Amino acid sequence: MTTVKTRFFEKFNFPGIVGCIDCTHIAIVPPPANNVEYPTHVFINRKGYYSINCQIICDADLKILGMNARYPGSVHDSAVWTVSNINRVLHGNYTQNNDQTTWLLGDSGYHLQPYLLTPVVGAEQETPEGRYTRSHCTVRNTIERCIGLLKAYFRCLHKDRVLHYKPQMAAKIIYSCAVLHNIMRDRNMDVPNINIEYGNY
């Protein structure tokens, strides 16, 4: 955790950050309509297609620190976060160890918490809130770049593709892609000749 904090501070001069968090939708074929455990309708996301809503946390070097691909597309980002293990760990670290110097950065879709910082919506630029929000957005852009790179590495995860598997198997594929993504990041392997549209995933 200390190493991750150090890297964020070295790159962005923003102290205490242990990761940036966001969710992204991975398209899948709909489960059978009569599936009791995974009914079809719960996989329809707000954009109208079937998906798994995948939570990702990354470090300053675009490596994936945590992933949760268990929830269908209809589940909101903040709901996935609420029941996640990392939420419980950070909550315990804050309440039991009184750690007030460790934060994740998330967008305005998340609720502000003592260990999850969000931007100040509508903050005027040349105010402390505005400067904080500008820095926040600069650092949080790492998760958008991470997701864009993950989907550039593995086109099967891109929004224009569809995983033709049951949700359980689709989740395993997503996790496997994350492991391979980290291996490629360790080796500084970039995607040649691909224009990654960050945020358009």
Automatic annotation (TrEMBL):
All copies of domain DDE Tnp4, residue ranges: 21-182
One Pfam family cited in the UniProt record for this chain: DDE_Tnp_4
Entry GO CC: nucleus
Top-level taxon: Eukaryota
Molecular function terms from GO: hydrolase activity; metal ion binding; nuclease activity
InterPro entries reported for this sequence: HARBI1-like (IPR045249), HARBI1_dom (IPR027806)
Similarity field: Belongs to the HARBI1 family.
PANTHER family in alphabetical order: DDE TNP4 DOMAIN-CONTAINING PROTEIN-RELATED, PTHR22930
Record protein name field: DDE Tnp4 domain-containing protein
